[in-house]
Amino acid sequence: MNDCERFEKLYLDWKKGGLNNEEAELLTRHASVCGSCTSINEADMRLRGLLKNQAVYRPTNGFELRLERSIRAVENNQKPVRLKKSAPLFPRWTALGAGLATGLAVGILVLSVPVDEAGKNSPISSISTPANQLIADVSPQSINPVEDTLASKKDTSSKVDSHYLVGDYGKVVSGR
Amino acid sequence: MSAERLTDEQLIREFQGGSTAAFDEIVRRYRNPLFSFIYRILNDPAFTEDLLQETFIRVWTNRDSYREVARFSTWIYTIAGNLAKSELRRQKIRRWTSLGGASSSDADERPLEVADESADPHRDYERRNIKQRVDHEVAKLPMVFKEVIILRDVQELSYEEISEILKIPLGTVKSRVNRARLRLQKRLKDLV
Predict the structure, then answer these.
(1) B1-114: which CATH architecture?
(2) B52 to chain A: which residues are within 8 Å by CB?
(3) Contact between B178 and A16 (Cβ < 8 Å)
(4) How does residue B119 score in pLDDT terms, banded at 50, 70 and 90?
(5) Under 8 Å CB-to-CB from B114, ≥6 apart: which residues?
(6) Chain A residues touching residue B149 (CB < 8 angstroms)
(7) Among the ranges given (A43-47, B85-89, B90-94), the one the predictor scored with the smallest mean pLDDT
(8) b/e map of B72-102 (b: 16 or more CB within 10 Å)?
(9) A89 vs B94, B138, B174: nearest CB
(10) pLDDT score recorded for residue B143
């Protein structure tokens, strides 16, 4: 800390009224040799003068009338008259974004559901692309109708033959 | 006795007793000082006026909760200051969540000034420039310095009142005021 920085700290302490004799001596000694630091007190007075003379602002004409109407509104459990509507804390796009993010998260969760063991293999992976796209949008529960459809055809094979194609979703066109 | 001659504490007592004339006098006395105070924190005239209105609505609806333990000015400035700081926090959140960080405040719009009758019209332009510059530098101060310097040097409240309004120790108020003044001195050295 240089002398001027120490002076500044001592000056602040002096303003609070908290200097011992030694510190007061240091302050006085530095002020007697440093014109820049001495001028702080004069500048302080001039600044206070500027701040004291700062503009006094006022509300627009008709403020009292609006206030009276607002007080009456509030007493009747209505909203007061406002000049400026407060914008929502979170704009609508954040709600939309949150919705999309939630949908995406659910979608990823659905697609990452692991395939069950061989006997219950979902026919999904072996189905051609258009059906795959269809089924990608579907929850695990609604995939079951495909399995049920297959089961009702009494398909006992452990692995679904690739000859089985699902033309319309849920209808199995048997290759046999 | 006419309302104008009553002290603030007498006025609020009258108002608590049902006198709307007392409330009108309170509004007349505090309208401009509170507007100036809130505006210097928010820097938006329209929001300032709404918050000023809200301050007086709260005085109206909560008049019976005022007790003469503290000065009336302390009470009303506390209400106004809390409203202003809450609005600032909301504006910060809104700026953060809006695309491109767009602000909803009309910062370029300036509020009306109470005319200075003693001003020399020939020096008016220069005086206005200086005031705007000082206002600008005060607005740039961190909030902890801005609020104390406004209350102490612009609104001319006592250190004790400021300590009660901001709920900080007296020593902290004095320290912050002095540090704020030093900062302003450095930034306005050509003026001081």
Answers:
(1) Orthogonal Bundle (1.10)
(2) 59, 63
(3) yes
(4) low
(5) A55, A56, A57, A58, B32
(6) 51
(7) B90-94
(8) bbbbbbbbbbebbeebbeebeebeeebeeee
(9) B94
(10) 93
Contacts of B175 in chain A (CB under 8 A): 12, 16
Of B50, B52, B57, the CB nearest to A84: B50
**Nearest-CA distance from B3 to chain A in Å?**
17
Are residues A71 and A7 both part of a single domain? yes
Report ipTM (2 d.p.): 0.83
Domain containing residue A50: 1-81
Query: Does residue A86 form part of some domain?
Result: no
Provide the token pair at B55.
Answer: 């301050």
Judged by CB atoms within 8 Å, which residues 65-124 of B form the interface with A?
90, 93-94, 97-99, 104, 111-114, 116
Predicted TM-score of the model (pTM): 0.67
N residues, chain B:
192
Q: Residue A128: is its pLDDT beyond 80? A: no
Q: Could you read off the pLDDT of A67-110 as tens digits, one per residue?
A: 999 999 998 888 887 876 555 556 566 667 777 888 888 888 88
Is the CB of residue A63 less than 8 Å away from at least one CB of chain B?
A: yes
Total domains in chain A come to: 2
Domain boundary among A40, A58, A81: A81
Which residue in chain B has the smallest CA separation from A49?
B153
Beta strands A165-166 and A172-173 are: antiparallel
Among A48, A81, A114, the domain boundary falls at A81
Within a domain: A4: yes
> What local confidence, expressed as pLDDT, does residue A175 receive?
39
- Arch. (CATH architecture) of B116-192: Orthogonal Bundle (1.10)
Quote the tokens at residue B19.
């006198």
Residues A47 and A100 in one domain: no
Closest Cα partner for B65 from B12, B3, B8? B12
Pick among A7, A9, A36, A67 to test the B interface (most B CBs inside 10 A): A67
pLDDT band at residue B111, thresholds of 50, 70 and 90?
Answer: confident
**Where do the domains of chain B lie?**
1-114, 116-192
CB contact under 8 A, A51 and B149: yes
Q: Does A94 touch chain B (CB under 8 A)?
A: yes
